[in-house]
Inverse folding.
């Protein structure tokens, strides 16, 4: 604590700079897999700080390594930096300048936090017994995501433990939430192509109506979660799109359903995939239609390791107060942080960003999404405390 406190105070001195960087990123957001200026900017800052910087890691990722003055373990901190295809509808001067693209998930804050933390740690380099790897990840929002190719390209080589945080709009500013075990869901998407037989709306008997088959299928699919999955194990199946036909009196030839499946357990995940295929094939066959399924396996579930979770909990308590560190109820959203946790121990935690005084009350991916920027201080301090635990001996 003796050596940690000055580091925490130092981070506060970088706050204005972190806000400025966050707002710059916010004004010029870039979509997943299309990031160019964002990684360039990140790499330039880390180089200026004197870190070893690798660019184009796994595609568009940036990995900066700070080598401590003494030997020791390697701690990785991760921030994502992609934005979303959403039109910014906030009335603030740092509103997105790119039409139809917006940082509506807070990844701009994650990035600025990591840079702030790097600034503090660079000054303490000689005292650190070990290394810190700053993983700036592209494309978190769109599967297959950036984490997997970055890992394949070596971003976790020699890493002993990894931490990441997400600022969370639904949690009041000032709180930190942690949980060990399953925290965010596995995400699988599907597209079902139904092939019927088109014809005149007045002669349904000589057609195979894909709209009726599709409607039945939507309902039958709802029975997978309600009748086949263990009620004590969470699962969701949502059909989010049903496209077919465009006239009053024409029975179309085809219909297309798109949807998403969320689960935690590997068993449940496999069961859902299997059941989706069975129910689709059986429903279509019964009506004389054909089905083709594209099953798009997405991110696995985020499964936090016990010890690192405890360490983050302990790190956060003196920073926000013990009563402000709360257990996190798992959510069905997905995160490709899951891949890092399959390789090395670590934990992913939430930092509250909701503040009605700042109009930061809208959910993630909403056109008016915003959060209390001071969440960066909390996230950054927790990171510093975690690093100190491992590297300040
Ligand atoms: Zn998001
Ligand atoms: Zn996000």
């Amino acid at each position: 604590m003796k050596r940690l406190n000055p580091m925490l105070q130092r981070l506060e001195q970088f706050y204005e700079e972190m806000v400025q960087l966050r707002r710059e990123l916010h004004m010029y957001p870039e979509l997943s897999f299309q990031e160019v200026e964002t990684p360039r900017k990140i790499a330039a800052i880390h180089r200026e700080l004197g870190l070893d910087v690798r660019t184009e890691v796994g595609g568009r990722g940036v990995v900066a390594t700070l080598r401590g003055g003494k030997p020791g373990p390697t701690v990785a901190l991760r921030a994502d930096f992609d934005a979303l295809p959403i039109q910014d509808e906030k009335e603030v001067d740092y509103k997105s300048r790119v039409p139809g693209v917006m940082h509506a998930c807070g990844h701009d804050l994650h990035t600025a936090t990591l840079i702030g933390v790097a600034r503090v740690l660079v000054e303490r380099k000689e005292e650190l017994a070990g290394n810190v790897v700053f993983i700036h990840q592209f494309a978190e929002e769109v599967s297959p995501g950036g984490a997997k190719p970055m890992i394949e390209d070596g971003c976790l080589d020699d890493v002993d433990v990894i931490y990441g945080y997400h600022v969370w709009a639904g949690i009041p500013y000032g709180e930190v939430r942690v949980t060990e075990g399953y925290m965010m869901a596995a995400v699988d998407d599907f597209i079902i192509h139904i092939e019927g037989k088109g014809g005149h709306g007045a002669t349904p008997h000589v057609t195979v109506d894909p709209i009726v088959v599709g409607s039945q299928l939507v309902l039958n699919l709802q029975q997978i979660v309600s009748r086949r999955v263990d009620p004590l194990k969470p699962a969701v199946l949502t059909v989010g799109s049903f496209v077919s036909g465009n006239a009053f009196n024409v029975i179309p030839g085809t219909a297309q359903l798109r949807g998403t499946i969320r689960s935690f357990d590997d068993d449940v995940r496999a069961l859902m995939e299997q059941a989706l295929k069975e129910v689709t094939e059986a429903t279509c066959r019964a009506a004389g239609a054909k089905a083709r399924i594209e099953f798009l396996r997405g991110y696995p579930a985020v499964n936090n390791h016990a010890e690192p979770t405890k360490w983050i909990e302990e790190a956060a308590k003196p920073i926000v107060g013990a009563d402000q560190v709360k257990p996190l109820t798992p959510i069905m959203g997905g995160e490709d942080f899951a891949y890092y946790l399959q390789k090395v121990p670590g934990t992913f935690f939430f930092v509250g960003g909701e503040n009605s005084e700042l109009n930061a009350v809208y959910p993630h991916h909403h056109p008016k999404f915003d959060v209390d920027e001071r969440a960066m201080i909390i996230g950054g301090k927790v990171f510093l405390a975690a690093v100190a635990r491992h590297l300040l001996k």
